[in-house]
Please model this.
Amino acid sequence: MTSLPNQQMLTHQEETRALFRQRFAEPLPISLRALLASAPLDGITLDRNPDPGREVDL
Model:
């Protein structure tokens, strides 16, 4: 009867591997431009105040 738990463990391991492959599969190659174009930016203000500059002691 020792083979039954081992067989169940193998089935569980195979199922776990399949789930990991689905979840962490390598993403499709996409350019940064396409990724940014698909980002949900509704309601986010992308304008910023101009920087007046800073005095720097050299």
Observations:
- Helices lie at 3-23, 32-37.
- The chain has a mean pLDDT of 79.
- The longest helix spans residues 3-23.
- Residues 3-36 form one domain.
